[in-house]
Each structure stands twice: as C-alpha cells, then as structure tokens.
Automatic annotation (TrEMBL):
Residues 2-48 form the Transcription factor CBF/NF-Y/archaeal histone domain. The keyword rRNA-binding does not apply. Gene3D superfamilies: Histone, subunit A. It comes from Acanthisitta chloris. One of its GO terms (biological process) is negative regulation of transcription by RNA polymerase II. It is found in: Nucleus. This is Protein Dr1. InterPro entries: CBFA_NFYB_domain, Histone-fold, Ncb2.
Amino acid sequence: NVRVANDARELVVNCCTEFIHLISSEANEICNKSEKKTISPEHVIQALESLGFGSYISEVKEVLQECKTVALKRRNPEEELLRQQQELFAQMQQAAQQAQLAAASASASNQAGSSQDEDDEDDI
C-alpha cells in the first residue's frame, strides 16, 4: 500500500533491466569461454559471483530448485496421462483377444455340435 511516483517506478524498472543485461552479458561471456551455445543456470551463478553479487547465489539456487520442481510437476501429468493411455490400449487389446478366443471357441463348439447332430441323424 505504498504510492510510488511514476519517475521512481520508471527508475526501478530501468535499474532492473540494466541489472539483467549486466548479469546476462557476463553469463554469455562465461558461456562462450566454456564453448557452450546455451547459457545455463551455472553460467548465471558464476556471473553473479564474478560481478560481486555472491550474496544472491543462495537465493538464486533456491529459486532454481523451485523452478525445476514446478517444471517436473508440469511434465508429470502429461507423462502420467500417456502411461494411463497406454495401459488402456493394452487392456482393450487384451479384451479384444479374449473376445476373439471366445468367438473361436463358440464357433468350434457349434461346429462340433453340428457334426454330432449329423452323426446322430445317420444312425436313424
């Protein structure tokens, strides 16, 4: 519940933007030195350390862990749905095989019954 002047808000936004550019530029240099093409969280942590912002590292690592946890939770439902779908397909396939076996058994039983009836008629 604090009122902030527009100039002050703009200054804070500009400072945040500059801070992000500073960290990302340093992380990019570290990334290039390690002959990588993608900036990783480790590059960002190294950039914070080299620029004198080491006091932020523990909090950054906590946030990184939270992000990984959220990403894992987001991925798991999709993986779980895929697993359930595959399980349902397997159950349907098994049910279809059982139905085919039952139909084949019934057909064989009917044929055996029909030939038995024919044999009985011949005896008369």
